[in-house]
Design brief:
209 residues, mainly alpha, single chain, 9 helices
Length: 209
């Protein structure tokens, strides 16, 4: 390949990744209307759908991205799609492999364990009926266990003060759960946003080389 053509391809790749970074701040509606950098916009939409665990929508966006992409862009989009779809379909092992192939930091062991657990509780729509029934049973057991723990903690804390009535223990147990889940959701979303931003920067840096 001629040096001039190689330089042109590298410049074009850098402009594409710069466009992807600029598009990250746009809403889904704005990305759907994007025409100049359609492949980058559809790739971002696919990654966002995967973060919502919507594998069907993610796959559709990545297919549009590949259709709109130029040949030199398709390999990177396929790698992003592999990692994103592994996340959406709760395939922890495939997510680790796809992340390494993409050249970004693989999820930690704790994150992979959480994804496996989530895959058991809320399997993807492509899973069979047995897996989904198992998920329902696990959710019921998990809710009962969490309620029991909260009720027991409230009862234990109230014991030195003479105890509380059953109604109050149930009320404070539910209140404790709401507060605990609210805190976990807040910090979980913040960590997820930070991880996604870091992964996007790593993808951009690797693709611009």
């Amino acid at each position: 390949m001629a040096p001039e053509k190689q330089r042109a391809i590298r410049v074009d790749q850098r402009s594409q990744m710069a466009a992807m970074q600029a598009l990250e701040s746009k809403s889904d509606e704005e990305l759907e209307r994007e025409t100049r950098f359609k492949s980058a916009a559809q790739t971002i939409l696919g990654a966002r759908a995967a973060e919502r665990y919507d594998a069907k929508a993610a796959r559709a966006h990545f297919q549009r991205a590949l259709t709109a992409a130029r040949p030199q862009e398709r390999l990177q989009i396929r790698r992003i799609a592999d990692a994103s779809l592994a996340l959406a379909e709760r395939r922890a092992g495939d997510l680790k492999t796809a992340s390494e192939r993409l050249g970004v930091e693989a999820p930690s062991g704790r994150q992979l364990f959480t994804l496996r657990l989530f895959g058991l509780i809320a399997p993807p729509s492509s899973a069979g009926i047995v897996a989904r029934l198992r998920g329902v049973v696990l959710v019921i057991i998990l809710i009962a266990a969490i309620l029991g723990i909260a009720f027991g903690l409230v009862s234990l804390v109230a014991l030195p003060f003479g105890g509380l009535s059953l109604d109050l223990r149930i009320f404070y147990g539910l209140l404790l759960l709401v507060v605990a889940f609210g805190v976990l959701f807040y910090f979980g979303r913040r960590r997820q946003r930070a991880a996604n931003a870091k992964r996007a920067e790593e993808i951009a840096a690797r693709s611009s080389r």
